[in-house]
Amino acid sequence: MTASPESLLSVRAVVKRYPGVVALGGVDVDLRAGEIHCLVGENGAGKSTLMKILAGAIRADEGSITIDGMSVTIDSPLASQRIGIGVIHQELKVVPELSVAENILLGNEPLRSGTPFIDPVALRERAESLLATLGESIDVTRRVRDLSTAEQQMVEIAKAISRNVRILILDEPTAPLTDHEINGLFTVLRRLKAESVGIIYISHRLEEIFEIGDRVTVLRDGLVVGGAPVGQIDRQTLIRWMVGRELAQEFPPLELSPGQEILRVENLSAGFLKDITFSVRRGELFGLAGLVGAGRSELARVLFGALARRSGTVLLDGKEIAPSSPREAIDEGIGLLTEDRNRYGLILAMNIRENISLANLGALVRGGFVDRRREAAAAEEFSSKLHIKAPHMEVAVDSLSGGNRQKVVLARWLFSSSKLLIFDEPTAGVDVGVKYEIYSLMGQLARQGIGVIVISSDLNELLGISTRIGVMCEGRLTGILDKRDADKETIMSLATQFTGGGHNRVD
């Protein structure tokens, strides 16, 4: 690939190696001023590695980077900022205890004339002006911890603009956002594009590529395997480039035959949840739909003992249970794959082996100590079953891609011999190939007699894999649909039964 004369950024033959792994094997990418260039690929394809190189977090082993045709060295985050690169990470880098204005102008605060002291009036005015250029009117005196995720994202973008950003990189920016918030983000990106900012947009949501992107480049196994203007490519071609094979369908044929009841919930109330009754059978995938804030994750937390119930009964495999803590729920045979795997599902500083064994250490204890050989063997077994991509089991989990982190959480619950597994947004931030693997595995678990509940904001996902779908609205279960009766319109009607139409995402 040769750089076009109008290229703002050119990455040429960039290589990054880690012990046992070539993360980037000679990557070429270019970005033009005033375009949105989408970067896609499976988890572990090299997208995050390339982003970290451009952000100055790591250095490439080989290759070159040019801005406006001039060679640059990006050897630190400060160097990246100075040449006009801004990065919006999937995990936002805000300082929660500081105000909006303090976050936006952190390290770039206006000073009172002739003094080393910050000018608070100028700070507020400058922050308000930057937000106004984005079409935002957030109160700049509020603490960032009190903002929504979408508002925090706008604070990060305003911070980048304050440093005269010319290249903006966004990593999975819409994963935690509602439809309304996504539309707001896209409006801001189009405004920046019109001002000649070059934007690299990383996402696993393929529909977004076709909505917001101008060009797309696909990485696989650290190499560029395809690229084209968005208007000249279709979804199936994009998927084929990503996974390296023809994926005839996004959802595997699961061939499920629901049998005996394994979970029964009767008249359950907790927090704002009200009088919820449903059951899950062996051999089925029970989907749970609803708007953001409908109570789906709260229901999962009650079943997992993380949220106290007020009334109602829960029977698991015919036995009434009332776990008052996650430890008690685990002992009863319940596992929860949380929506936020990084905060609540994993201990990022620990290695793969330790994370997999965490929920079932009792099975590994010999003479009062954990048998490390048996622990390592269990980790290797489940890592192999789930195709976790890592050089070895001693690698820290925070070095893994999103899809591989999700597999580590799943390996933990498989090792704990759970009777009921609750998947909360199981495919958020993972690629189509890993999604297919996860769907297949969930079907396999159901066929083995494990109860499976799948909470998802992606209606296509729920319609593609579920045998039945329960729909929640404002803390209540408003209906349960058999697969043959379920469609998007019916689900949305039930999901907005008390909201007057709703405004949050249920894709």
Q: Cα-atom Rg, whole angstroms?
A: 24 Å
Taking pLDDT < 50 over at least 5 consecutive residues as the criterion, the unreliable ranges are 1-5, 500-507
Structural class based on helices, strands and sheet pairing: alpha/beta
Helix content: 25-40%
Number of helices, where a helix is a run of at least 4 consecutive DSSP H or I residues: 17
Biggest β-sheet description: 6 strands, mixed
How far apart lie the N and C ends? 37 Å
Strand order, largest beta sheet = 6-7-8-3-9-10
Q: What's the number of extended β-strand segments? A: 22
Strand share of the residues? 25-35%
Shape: globular
How are the SSEs ordered, and which strands pair?
Layout: E1 7-18, E2 21-32, E3 36-41, H1 47-55, E4 62-67, E5 70-72, H2 77-82, E6 85-88, H3 100-104, H4 120-133, H5 149-162, E7 167-171, H6 179-194, E8 198-202, H7 206-212, E9 215-220, E10 223-229, H8 235-243, E11 261-270, E12 273-281, E13 285-290, H9 296-303, E14 311-316, E15 319-321, H10 326-332, E16 334-337, H11 341-345, H12 352-357, E17 365-366, E18 369-370, H13 372-386, H14 402-415, E19 420-424, H15 432-447, E20 451-455, H16 459-465, E21 468-473, E22 476-482, H17 488-495
Helix pairs in contact: 13-14
